[in-house]
Amino acid sequence: MKTKDFSRRKFIATTATGTAAVAVSASIPAFGNITPVRNESEKLAILGGTPVAPEKKWPDWPYIDEKVVEEVVKTTRSGIWCRIQSPNGTVPTFEKELAKLYGIKNTVSTGSGTQALNTVVEALELGPGDEIITSPYTDPGTIQSILVSRALPVMADLDPESFQLDPDDVERKITKNTKALMPVHMMGQPCNMQRIMEIAKKNNLKVIEDSCQAIMAVYQGKKVGLIGDAGCLSFQTSKVFCCGEGGAIFSNNDELLEKCYTVMNHGTAKNGRTTVIGSKYRMNEFEAAVLLGQMPGLQERHDIRNRNAKYITENLKDIPGLIPQKLYEGTTEGSWYIYAWAYKKEQWNNAPREKFLKALAAEGISLSPYIANGLHREPWTEFIQTLPEYKTMFGAARMKKFRDELNLVKCDQVCQEMAMIWASGPLTGTLADMDDLIKAIKKVHANRDKLNSI
Ligand SMILES: *Cc1c(COP(=O)(O)O)cnc(C)c1O
To answer: From ligand 1's centre to the CA of 243, what distance in Å?
Structure first.
């Protein structure tokens, strides 16, 4: 279907010596050997110059090929459209394939990442009166997975260089009611799990890893999501492995996974008995079919995104005002759902970020400011103050403290400085695609004295 795919596959086949992304990256002959930016000092496109990459076309997202279509047709024809119709249907097959990818016995799929996270919250019996510490810089689904169980999401501030939870602030936010931590691997790269696990052990806390952006990311030799008690994935369309809406739970703890199945299945266990509280969060067979169809190229696209991320970082290291996301020591593979920078305007002639993004877009490269406000700035923090269950279970003093601690200035800083590219499709492109991005950024930087006039 796509000629590019063939050449990409061939590239991997001829250069990769192992399965690790590192092997692929190491095979690139010379980092920093990018073709000179001919038009670096040329006139900015926004001021009438020639764009670096006019109408830049990145690889399409979501990823579609004939195999994906075939799997959906196969499921349609089978008449097995719901997971309980057959133990060998598409959903159970997908769960086993995903488990193989993670080197574990089984996984539990759900209808979304939010549902996956909430299933784990319920399976760990966390609820009213319990506090779970998480990040304000995340998808709303993270905190909603806690709120729908009427537990309290307590937000800790960020490390502004990694855009991830700051373990020191996590420690400060622990109270006698804290039962769990929900670290979020933002952009698809691991957060500081070494410190987070130390804090969890010391305080006897459960750890639910929000790996919704971070499928296959590796930290200290382990895939993220398998470091804490359980990990959760999202297969929403924008994610690097997707089917529109979907999610999954994975864990080394088989007993916990079994309980997750029961919660996910309206509280009904595999033996047919309805035993606990749980909504109906089943993935449907068509979603699993799309995922099964995407699976063959999953590792390859992961490796290419890792290679390209390294290439971008290496080739922009001399642009001081664009600082790539800090990766914690022990990160050997990222998922690269997003490639993100902190934009430091002092290095851009004090031009506001919006002018930089506008000038870059005119060159054909669109970056996004991503999340406008951290979740600590959203109205739900007031809404829960009005609910009797929060007043009763947590008490007025605790809810006041919760409100007083919402001034998360590092998260505000990250929201203001963020410039990122949605990487699911774009980072599966060729090195020439990456060169366009690199050249455009270098050109705007060379012309930074003009940015305030646009
Ligand atoms: C996408 C996402 C979620 C929610 O997943 P859905 O499938 O959209 O419900 C949760 N956390 C993070 C970090 C996400 O990126």
So the answer is: 13
